[in-house]
Amino acid sequence: MIVHLIDGTYELFRHFYGLRRAPTEKRTRFGAVAGVLNTVLHMVADGATHVGVATDHVIESFRNGLWHGYKTGAGVEPALLAQFEPLEEALRAMGVALWAMVDLEADDALASAAAIASRDPRVERVCIWSPDKDLAQCVRGDRIVQVDRRSKAVRDAAEVRSKFGVDPERIPDYLALVGDAADGYPGIKGIGAKGAAAMIARYSEIERFPPEVLGDQRALALLFKRLATLKTDADLLHNVDELKWRGATPEFSAICERLQMPDLVARLERTAELSKSR
């Protein structure tokens, strides 16, 4: 089986801002929610059988207590924030495994689910559907891969090395040195992408750097590495069978009606028929 793990937060942002390019008359209050649901249904219609979605129910985590500049929901448009809970409700009713994260982030959920799924010998491949740089640390050979929906690129371990100059396991070290503007930490001043890759190639993880390499910036680099390191031990599921899509619950139709997405009901019924015929 192939397990598909979807970054629901990224997908919601993608559809929300994508709709900005659509004609005004085609926009609806929950248009981004409809976009994400359609994306998931499209994957199931194309043959996906085991699917999980992670969202940032609260755009904060334990990392905010470690670094004052770490990302929050500040600055995110209220119209976008207002679509998280309806999306989560609709996904649950659609019968999709959902992890709405509070103390941890959606990326931690994806990393944990990937680790759990990869330990099951029945799983041929785990696909993490997100272009986020920090999720590259989860990639393992061609068994756990990262998929960028925009470019259609599938990033295995070789592709991670080609893109960043380091192995997937060293992505937290790399990000600690170069920073991650999306997550709100700057990295170590004066160290760019090539320099970071060269340092990691020479010394391996930051903990093994000779003290003089980073000097008084060593503690800061280790803090940034802690921010960049995703949790892989979140208690999300006990068996990949929990990810198998078995169809929507009776509540799904009413939710679609309330969110003004009537077309989704018919599409889901067609998808369910396709799924049964396989």
Describe this structure in words.
The structure is a single chain. With 278 residues, the protein is α/β, with parallel strands linked by helices. The protein has 2 domains: 2-130 and 235-265, Rossmann fold (3-Layer(aba) Sandwich); 165-228, 5' to 3' exonuclease, C-terminal subdomain (DNA polymerase, domain 1), CATH 1.10.150.20. The chain is built from 12 helices and 6 strands. It has a 6-stranded mixed β-sheet with strand order 3-2-1-4-5-6, sandwiched between helices. Helix 1 (8-18) packs across helix 2 (31-45), helix 7 (171-178) crosses helix 8 (193-203) and helix 7 (171-178) crosses helix 10. The radius of gyration is 20 Å and the shape is globular. The two termini are 13 Å apart.
List its salient traits:
single chain; 278 residues; alpha/beta; Rossmann fold; DNA polymerase, domain 1; 2 domains; six-stranded mixed sheet
Number of E strands: 6
Give the integer mean of the pLDDT values. Answer: 93
The major pleated sheet works out as: 6 strands, mixed
Which architecture of the largest domain does the CATH hierarchy give at level 2? 3-Layer(aba) Sandwich
The amount of beta strand, in percent, is 5-15%
Query: For the CA atoms, what is the radius of gyration?
Result: 20 Å
Q: What structural class do helix, strand and pairing data support? A: alpha/beta
Residue windows where pLDDT falls under 50 for at least 5 positions: none
Q: What pattern of helices and strands is seen along the backbone?
A: EHHEHHEHEEEHHHHHHH
State the CATH topology of the largest domain.
Answer: Rossmann fold
